Amino acid sequence: MNRHHQLSLSLAFLSKRFVAAVVLASFLLLFGFSSFASADELPAAPQLEAEAAILMDAESGQILFQHNADEARPPASMAKMMTEYLVSMAVKQGKMSWDDKVTVGENAAKQTGSRILLAQGDQHTIRELYIALAVYSANDATVQLAEEVSGSEEEFAKLMNQTAVEFGMTQSHFINSTGLDRADMPEKFRPTTVDGETTMSARDAAILAYRIVKDDPEFLETSKLQEYKFRERDKTPMKNWNWMLGTNKDNPTLRKFAYEGVDGLKTGHTSRAGQNFTGTALRNGTRLIGVVMGVPGTTEQGKRFLETAKLFDYGFKGFEKKTIVEAKASVPEHETLKIKKGKSTTVSVVTATDLTVLIPKGVVVEPVVQEVKPVEDPLVAPIAQGDKVGTVTYKYKDPSTQEEKTVTIDLIASEEVNKASWWRLLFRAIGNFFSGLFQGIVDLF
């Protein structure tokens, strides 16, 4: 073989490899890169350094992630979320006013840990104490507020436990308003009618945060304060222990912990509890609640916020809101319900609200109708457009937990049905009689 022929073969071989490389590059551009993008959109479940954790959609209560979520653990100051809730509800119910001035008692003055150094006999408003509780997690302010609501901290703890039962917080037990261990309470004020220690599960903390966001959204205006000067004579203001606040992005010391959209809720730490945090963040109309408990390390390391960020990243990047049942939509095969004494014998019905859930990006959820039930059977005219006339129950599989979920939505009349005149009802009855008679004769044969 001469050198010219060898050169020709080499060039042909290189040309084929070049073409193959071009084809491979085109394939990656068309398919490979899109697959990589999809992997970014569907991150794996977060790997957390926490003894327990949970991620919840604050709108629906839907659980997106959980780890040891039902394990009862010491919550430390996260227990104060219940105190915050009950104080706010007492104000809403008119039992006290934000501007009421109260006198600090012995129990509050003897508190240890995080506090604003209240002295017995000091006077402050409910609002001032509430901000000290929400921003600085002040034990002394917390105890004084509890006593204002229930007369004593021990009675307040009973109210906390009663409320926990009402909320379905099955792994929660409170012995005080602060979350302190019994041994850290002033000995004179340790409860005698409430046993044990304060406990709460990650799920219970999320349920409590869910109720705060739902029932008392104004609290977030307080919980997002970066600092607050409690007294005019104080040299420095109280600093918020929640370093994850989105507004901390401008703080050189805390910006590595700041997370866009975070505006609450509560930190907690004791040597027995470890580092705890219940946070909530709002992005693009979606609010999430994240809880981490038993995170290792010191308060100064701020690891609980970095672990919570993993939860939020998983939720915001991997899930999207999808409406799987539209509002004012008819239900297939159940477009009407029977009605009596009306101009019509049926009324058209549609869903009153939509059904929107958070699902992993790219996943399709198909709800299945389980039951359509009128408010009474049959319905009776007259019926106005928009009246609730029944319910429809859907079942679907939650893709994040693989659990079967059932949701019931109201059905409303999409048209008006007036009451029929007596002669229309008479002729309808006659028609029904002969129709039934004819059908009976047919059935004989």
Structure description:
With 445 residues, this protein is of the alpha+beta class. It has two domains: 52-321, Beta-lactamase; 326-424, Peptidoglycan synthesis regulatory factor (PBP3), Domain 2. The protein has ten helices and 17 strands. It has a six-stranded mixed sheet with strand order 14-16-17-12-11-15, with no helix packed on it. A hairpin with a 5-residue loop joins β1 and β2. α2 (80-92) crosses α5, α4 crosses α5 and α5 crosses α6. The longest helix is centred in the first third of the chain and has 39 residues, at 3-41. The radius of gyration is 31 Å and the shape is globular.
Which short descriptors sum up this protein?
445 residues, alpha+beta, Beta-lactamase, Peptidoglycan synthesis regulatory factor (PBP3), Domain 2, 2 domains, 5-stranded antiparallel beta sheet, 10 helices, 17 strands, globular, disordered N terminus
The structure class reads alpha+beta
**Mean pLDDT metric:** 87
Weakly predicted, low-confidence segments: 1-42
The CATH homologous superfamily of the largest domain corresponds to DD-peptidase/beta-lactamase superfamily
